[in-house]
């Protein structure tokens, strides 16, 4: 939940008191034109209560709100604490007073105090957040399968049995499979038991879209016999034929291999009384796009940025991640919101980091201290090899967007020939970053 304002203000920015949670939710619902039910309201209240909370007070009136969930995000070769920004709202009567600027300044202070070198958000208006240093760091594809005929694939599906399980059993059964996939892609979030229940599966029906559009409850299909770790799983909901054709909506699909993914997609495309499979959020390099024998049957219906990332502490962010190649470059970094990040720095990645993108599939080490990877980020007076803004660095950080794209767009400058190519090679990851969640 995010909206806009600008300029300067005399509003008091302080911790949102727990007693003001309901007032804060009403403010947010006013700004975003929402009318949630009691269960959704209770869910939002718990989210806001348990996260970072910033209120903007105009006298006795609550005029602005910013919240942030405490999450842990995968980055190449590691995991880092991240503030997932949400509920950003300013009353329409208080726009253009600098309230959003002031709340974001306070958010950076809270992130530093809470040890969170990263912040992220899913903007409702993407034009707003670039000026605060956020850059689009992961992308998603919407995919639709014509399921009126069997799904044609170029390789054989995994032959292990498929079985439906009680969604209530899914968190305990599937968490090891999910955790095993985490290191393969940057931009993902670790989950606890509560998040599995409320965030991933919505077992209590508290989401804003729960039950809308005629879709039924969550179904969970797993690949593998009882007693063994599943080779993959999918969460989906169905809508039978009525006003329109029957649809399978895929909310999440994880697989240990291409044959495992082929088995799950084949199953989803074979469900009786449905003729379309829709997945609204899939990685841009989803193997299904290459497995499909007929690309007219498997179509990309949309492509858009998903997670927007902010490097709150650039030094910690850069020295904590792994690198695909050694590099020694001077970067001239602009950051108007956080001057401590700005300046001329030498980025050096040591031989210990040069493992290559294909080797980074083992467990991420979330306890590794910053700087222990052999990477350094030190101030220098040497001439820069590259000049760029922290926004562009954030977009490149997870390996999703090559820096050369921003150079071609005139948003970054290469001073030393070949410097951008070398940095892109170091930033490369085996799989594109992906964030399946939007909260």
Short note summarizing the structure:
Helix content is 24%, strand content 28%. By secondary structure, it is an alpha+beta fold. 44% of the residues are buried.
Textual characterization of the structure:
The protein is α+β, with helices and mostly antiparallel strands and 439 residues long. The protein has 3 domains: 12-138, Gcn5-related N-acetyltransferase (GNAT) (Aminopeptidase), CATH 3.40.630; 140-304, Aminopeptidase (3-Layer(aba) Sandwich), CATH 3.40.630.30; 313-427, SCP2 sterol-binding domain (Nonspecific Lipid-transfer Protein, Chain A, 2-Layer Sandwich), CATH 3.30.1050. It contains 11 helices and 19 strands. The chain has helices spanning 21-32, 38-50, 99-113, 170-181, 193-200, 258-268, 288-291, 314-320, 390-397, 403-408, 419-427, and strands spanning 12-15, 52-58, 61-75, 78-90, 118-121, 135-136, 139-146, 162-165, 219-223, 232-239, 247-255, 276-282, 298-305, 308-311, 327-334, 343-349, 376-379, 386-389, 413-414. The protein has a 7-stranded mixed beta sheet, with helices on both faces. The chain has a 7-stranded mixed beta sheet with strand order 8-9-10-11-12-7-13. It is globular and about 65 Å long. Residues 2-9 and 354-372 have low confidence and may be disordered.
């Amino acid at each position: 939940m995010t909206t806009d304002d600008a300029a300067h203000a005399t509003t008091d920015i302080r911790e949102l008191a727990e007693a003001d949670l309901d007032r804060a939710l009403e403010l947010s619902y006013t700004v975003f034109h929402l009318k949630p039910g009691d269960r959704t309201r209770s869910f939002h209240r718990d989210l806001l209560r348990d996260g970072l909370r910033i209120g903007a007070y105009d006298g006795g009136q609550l005029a602005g709100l910013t919240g942030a969930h405490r999450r842990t995000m995968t980055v190449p070769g590691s995991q880092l604490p991240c503030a997932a920004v949400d509920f950003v709202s300013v009353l329409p009567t208080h726009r253009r007073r600098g309230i959003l600027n002031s709340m974001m300044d306070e958010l950076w202070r809270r992130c530093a105090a809470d040890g969170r070198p990263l912040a992220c958000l899913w903007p409702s208006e993407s034009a707003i957040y670039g000026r605060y240093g956020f850059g689009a760091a992961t992308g998603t594809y919407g995919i639709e399968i014509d399921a009126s005929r069997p799904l044609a694939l170029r390789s054989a599906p995994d032959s292990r049995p498929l079985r439906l399980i009680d969604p209530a059993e899914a968190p305990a059964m599937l968490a090891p499979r999910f955790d095993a996939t985490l290191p393969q892609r940057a931009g993902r979030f670790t989950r606890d038991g509560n998040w599995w229940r409320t965030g991933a599966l919505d077992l209590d029906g508290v989401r804003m879209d729960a039950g809308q559009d005629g879709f039924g409850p969550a179904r969970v299909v797993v690949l593998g016999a009882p007693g063994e770790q599943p080779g993959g799983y999918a969460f989906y909901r169905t809508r039978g034929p009525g006003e329109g054709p029957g649809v399978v909506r895929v909310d999440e699909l994880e697989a240990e291999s291409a044959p495992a993914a082929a088995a799950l997609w084949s199953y989803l495309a074979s469900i009786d009384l449905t003729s379309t499979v829709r997945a609204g959020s899939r990685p841009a390099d989803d193997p299904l796009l290459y497995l499909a024998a007929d690309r007219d049957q498997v179509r990309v219906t949309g492509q858009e940025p998903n997670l927007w990332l902010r490097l709150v502490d650039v030094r910690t962010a850069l020295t904590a991640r792994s690198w695909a190649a050694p590099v020694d470059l001077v970067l001239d970094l602009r950051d108007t919101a956080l001057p401590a990040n700005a300046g001329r720095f030498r980025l050096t990645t040591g031989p210990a980091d040069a493992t290559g993108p294909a080797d980074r599939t083992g467990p991420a080490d979330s306890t590794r201290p910053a700087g222990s990877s052999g990477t350094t980020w030190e101030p220098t007076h040497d001439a820069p090899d590259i000049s760029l803004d922290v926004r562009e660095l954030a977009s490149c950080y997870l390996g999703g967007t090559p820096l050369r794209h921003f150079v071609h767009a005139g948003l970054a400058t290469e001073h030393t020939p070949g410097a951008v190519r070398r940095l892109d090679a170091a930033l490369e990851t085996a799989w594109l970053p992906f964030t399946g969640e939007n909260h």
